[in-house]
């Protein structure tokens, strides 16, 4: 299998629009947890076998460590962007539940057709263009007699107020405004981000966009309002990364219906990002079987064996020993070079020989179950690929800095991290990819070692020692 050649070693960078407080300290724990890193890579799923495809992972057809739960954990703890997968999983579940909704309710929420979406896009472009032109005209006539801004009236016996607006105090809330379609100025949803009532937040969002309040009798309207407040509205706790035009188009569709087709454009963008970027990165990350300290240790071991082999080769060359003895250092060079190449790809050859991998930091510590029993983190995360749908509708943020494992893992000494607990790799295709990488590393090591031995064998004996 040559596909393993396409897998470069990853570095995972947090998305710029997210803020995670003490993320920098947490990043030092799990950034390139395998010890591998990459700068930029082609965002393509090309070369990934069908057994580890995106659809197979989402449908639950893979084994640990490539299940849907590991995918979500990777996005949360490594890429810092699990909201795409969370929203996608919720939408797929919503589609299934919509099919079971009685027809008497579904007729209240007709489909949002592509023609309607295209008409809305054209109207949005026209509105934005008109708003931009109006703004330009206002700036052009600002301060002149044609300025539409109302002048301050002077009262008898008093002086004119020298400022058109009262400056805000440092503790005052930032007041952002937006121009709606009817030309009026309204506060944005960001000012209402502290609102906990999802229905009120959704209604405010429709009002900000110059839209009408949707019909509450449509099926699943309360759930849609909740999803709006969690994923779509500005400053939402799990705000998706999309443009203002896409947000307005989604709100316009949800004003009209609760049919799953209202999310068509948004879901297509989310799915594209998952398939073309997050999924390939996840597979590359899953191939790495060791944590960062273990991989650094493996690299050091490989370099040490290579240096020992070269030093031995030099000593044999300057000695009275025959040329045949100069082949012996290959016993040090081959394992050293193979270990170094494998470690450079994030793999430890010892763990690979056992088909093991290190338990991830967030899986190391016990988890308290509802019945009061304790399950180990690895058993809790690896035993099932199922994900609680209620967690996808949770208004909590995707931040993890306050989770207990962060500080606990920081306190573990380096030696203990090198020999962290291991778990068996159950996914056969992942084991096959790792076998391919190991064989490639071994063949490359034999070739390089043979060249080194041949070079030293060509040098005459030194007769020094």
Describe this protein's structure.
- This protein has a domain at 110-131 and 175-258.
- A hairpin with a 5-residue loop joins strand 1 and strand 2.
- Helix content is 49%, strand content 3%.
- By secondary structure, the protein is mainly alpha-helical.
- Mean pLDDT is 78; it is low at 1-25, 34-44, 150-196 and 368-384.
- The protein is elongated, with a radius of gyration of 30 Å.
Distance between the termini: 48 Å
Helical content stands at 40-55%
Largest sheet: 2 strands, antiparallel
Structural class of the secondary structure composition? mainly alpha
Q: What's the number of helices?
A: 18
**Can you tell me the overall shape?**
elongated
Quick overview of this protein structure:
The protein is mainly α. The protein has helices at about 25-30, 55-60, 70-75, 85-100, 105, 115-140, 200-210, 220-230, 245-255, 265-285, 290-315, 330-345, 350-355, 375-380, 390, 405-410, 415-420, 430-455; strands at about 175-180, 185, 355-360, 365-370, 375, 420-425.
Task: Quickly list its features.
single chain, 465 residues, mainly alpha, two-stranded antiparallel ribbon, two-stranded antiparallel sheet, elongated, membrane, transmembrane helix, transmembrane, RGS_sf, RGS_subdomain_2
